[in-house]
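Standup notes, structure subgroup. Blocker cleared on the adenosine-5'-triphosphate input:
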Amino acid sequence: MKGFDFDFLTITVTDVMDILFVAFLIYYTYNLIKNTMAVNLLLGMLIIIVLWFVVDALNMRLLSAIINKFMSVGIIALIVIFQPEIRRFLLLIGKNTFLQKNRAWWGYLFGSRDIERDNLVRIKPIIDACKSMKKSRTGALIVFVKFYDDQLFANSCEMIESKISKRLLESIFQKYSPLHDGAVVIAENKIKSASCILPLTDNDKLPPQFGLRHRAGIGISETTDAVAVIVSEETGEIAYAKQGRVRMNVSFGELEKLLNKDF
Ligand SMILES: Nc1ncnc2c1ncn2[C@@H]1O[C@H](COP(=O)(O)OP(=O)(O)OP(=O)(O)O)[C@@H](O)[C@H]1O
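Run returned:
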């Protein structure tokens, strides 16, 4: 195909399309993994690749041999490490044969405006429910995941698949509800399940007042990309767990900002 011809290089329409497709792929992949632990893993891999080039250029044979061995299993390691992301990616492609069928695609591909608007709609009932549960000293544990992993929550959860609503959250966590024990999981704009038993953290540096509810919220944020909001039954205080770290005494303004960013 004919294109532009600068003395030293020729750019064809196919080249432009090629570059656009690669840019599109990078942007899409970034959107899929942003705010997840996969970003850190990817960064780790990039550092190793840069190191590999440097070591090779400096002719450091021993280190080069070690990194070479590591890189030879790299592709398999990548598939294992990014298995959840690859699965998600393929699932999304499978589910959405026509782009127009699902507006979420446009959010992923062309910006966050719609997502932001959706966020306000879905975050408000959650904040309102937390306000009311704080007031009534109702203990609650709400976990937010980008994509619901059936395997992770298969054992204990009661599936709900409902629109996010303040009254539903309050009803689930009220003391006499059969589902009040355990966590509610919110994903893909829905209350997906309730009464979920989560892995507990074994961090021994947590404040002594943190019991099982807090430990479960922190535990799930350590092992997955989930964030957790914990309403204490004893004090009404709100805690926010992300990547194994916990913020205590979170105000509702902060909670809104955090959820807007992470959820
Ligand atoms: N593995 C778990 N996964 C999810 N939820 C759990 C788990 N273990 C306990 N919980 C929830 O935590 C509740 C017990 O909370 P506990 O009093 O030990 O927590 P806490 O961190 O001290 O919080 P609070 O300030 O609300 O008392 C249980 O009723 C149950 O709902």
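Discussed briefly. DSSP finds eleven helices and nine strands in the chain.
Next: hand off to the docking folks.
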